[in-house]
Amino acid sequence: MTAPAVSAVLFDLDDTLYPQSSFLAGAFDAVAEEAGRLGLDRDRFRRALDEALSEGSDRGNTIDRALAALGAPGTDAAVLVKAFHGFVPARLEPYPGVPAALGELGRRVPLGLVTDGHVPGQQAKLEATGLGSHFGVVVFSDEIGRSYRKPHPAGVAAALDRLGVPPAEAVLVGDRPDKDVAAALSLGMRAVRVRTGEYAARPDLPGTFASVETVAEAAALLLPLLAEAD
Ligand SMILES: [Mg+2]
Known about the structure:
Number of domains: 2
CATH topology of the largest domain: Rossmann fold
Strand content: 5-15%
CATH superfamily of the largest domain: HAD superfamily/HAD-like
CATH class of the largest domain: Alpha Beta
Number of helices: 10
Radius of gyration: 19 Å
Shape: elongated
Bound molecules: magnesium ion
Largest sheet: 6 strands, parallel
Number of strands: 6
């Protein structure tokens, strides 16, 4: 039994198409500037942010944890969170080979993007990568609701629906086994995991279609599997 040809490829954004750390570095610089305006020691707070982040970006409340570590009670964390969300990166460099890989795949089949997180922030990131034009469909899962972030399959299902492609004929490429791969598998899609970014060392989920180093490798693997154009 052979799997059906691939008629669409969906991608995750953060740590799949560009390093999320490059965004966070700029955003935390902006937060530290704001902290300086509030009277905190800007450089110490910037280091506290990095330390809080080193416990994992998934933990959330990075700014609160940095404030706690610095012993700055009474600081208005909401102002700092606003500075974080208001940060607009000028340019986020994609991982090497990503524009070419999207170009090659996108000439053959439609591509989609499914990304979690604060919607204006995710829009600004996509814009800064310069990759937006490759995608026929972009789904910001938070527009459906925060509880629909991956591994919830709703965002991925919405992208496939808009492309008119059934899950069995689609592949999702993403860096997170627990989020991207899990969402794809729950829909009966094939999942290609890339080993880039903060979670590169996490083990693969059973049932992962392929696990490769980069999006460029993922594209090389997928090109022979794509459906022929009519
Ligand atoms: Mg990701």
